[in-house]
Amino acid sequence: MDSANVLAAVPTEGVRKTEYNFFVQYQYKLRPNITISLGLLYDYFGVFSEVHGRDLPFEHDLAMSFNSGVAAFQKGSKWGFLRKDGSVALEPTWEKTGEFSEGVCPVKSNGRWGLIDPSGKVVMAPRYQEMDSFTDGLVAAKQGDQSIYLDHGAKMVWRQKMDCPAGSAPGNYKKPS
What CA–CA distance (Å, rounded) separates 154 from 167? Predict the structure, then answer.
């Protein structure tokens, strides 16, 4: 791994790092109105380490914010969930994840989105092109050219054709059958 992104605060106490800076400059005056300046800068910025040698290796490529007691993290090309103590709650098995909301979380598997519960059990099979997190008992999803809203029982409660004419006041709404 050549880099890591972490959405968390950097500790300011109990850590140390090594840093070296070196700069050399040379100026040569060719004429009274022409001066050539050359410079060389070298910076080394070491990694932070814990002062008592109790470092924990950071083994994830990306970690998101905590929500409902867990945070999504990426390892390689897969996503999973961490607990607040840093232990793995759900192993990285999904292509992408959303955030837990109302007891479920959208996850992408084989190019389609579905929902899992906190134990990782699939509660809505992945079959949607896009999916949001639940809000007020509904989740928005995209299926074909339709924007749909589903309830917790996976029942469609509303849909709208996504290619509505621009500027149309009512849009092209369709009542679920």
Answer: 31
Which of 83, 151, 85, 86 has the alpha carbon at shortest distance from 118?
83
SS3 content of the chain, % helix, strand, coil (to 5): 0, 55, 45
Q: In this structure, are residues 11 and 48 in contact, taking their beta carbons and an 8 Å threshold?
A: yes
120 Ramachandran zone, left/alpha/beta (phi>0; psi -120 to 50): left
The pTM score is: 0.60
Question: What CA–CA distance (Å, rounded) separates 74 from 83?
Answer: 14
DSSP string, 58-106: ---SEEEEEETTEEEEEETTEEEEEETTS-EEEEEEESEE---BTTBEE
Render pLDDT for 65-124 as a digit per residue (tens, 0 to 9): 888 888 898 988 999 998 887 788 999 999 999 989 999 999 999 999 999 998 999 999
* N-terminal to C-terminal alpha carbon distance within the chain: 50
Residue showing tokens 């002062």? 51
